[in-house]
Design brief:
The chain is an alpha/beta fold. It contains four helices and five strands. α2 links the parallel β3 (60-63) and β4 (85-88). This is XdhC Rossmann domain-containing protein.
Length: 150
């Protein structure tokens, strides 16, 4: 009699936190999905950055409101931190002025994921959050994401 093989591992991998700026339907959905996949989530509800996210090594930082008053400083701090993933919810078009401002200041924005998430085609908050969490998980395992089939 052979032992049943399971497609998952019961061993918990060590992952950083998911840090999200501002409370909105997408950040709440990110919290639900990321928690379901075993990630600790902290949402900073104040759109001015509040007391700060203080990213540590391995953390994922997601700016869910590119119009937040403190968006530039949050991105500056996240990109200068040891965070493993930094992303912003915005189309490339909407992000242009903010990215230009950061580049003019000498901030390296090459690691910034904008728009955040994988291209799943979703439009609703839950679907967008799913794409972002999928990208965070893929990045944490050094994988590109995408279909597993050949």
């Amino acid at each position: 009699m052979s032992e049943r093989q399971q497609p998952w591992s019961d061993e918990a991998a060590a992952h950083g936190r998911v840090l999200v700026l501002s409370d909105n339907p997408i950040s709440r959905a990110i919290t639900s999905i990321a928690t379901a996949v075993g990630r600790e989530v902290h949402v900073e509800p104040a759109d001015d950055g509040g007391p700060g996210l203080h990213p540590q090594a391995g953390d994922a930082v997601v700016l869910c409101d590119h119009d937040a008053p403190d968006a530039p400083s949050v991105l500056r701090a996240a990109l200068a931190s040891p965070a493993a993933y930094v992303a912003m919810m915005a189309s490339r078009q909407r992000a242009v002025s903010l990215l230009d401002e950061l580049v003019e200041e000498g901030v390296d924005v090459a690691a910034l994921h904008v728009p955040a998430g994988h291209d799943l085609g979703g439009k609703g908050p839950g679907e967008i959050a799913l794409s972002v969490v999928a990208e965070i998980v893929a990045e944490s395992y050094g994988r590109p994401g995408g279909p597993m089939r050949d």
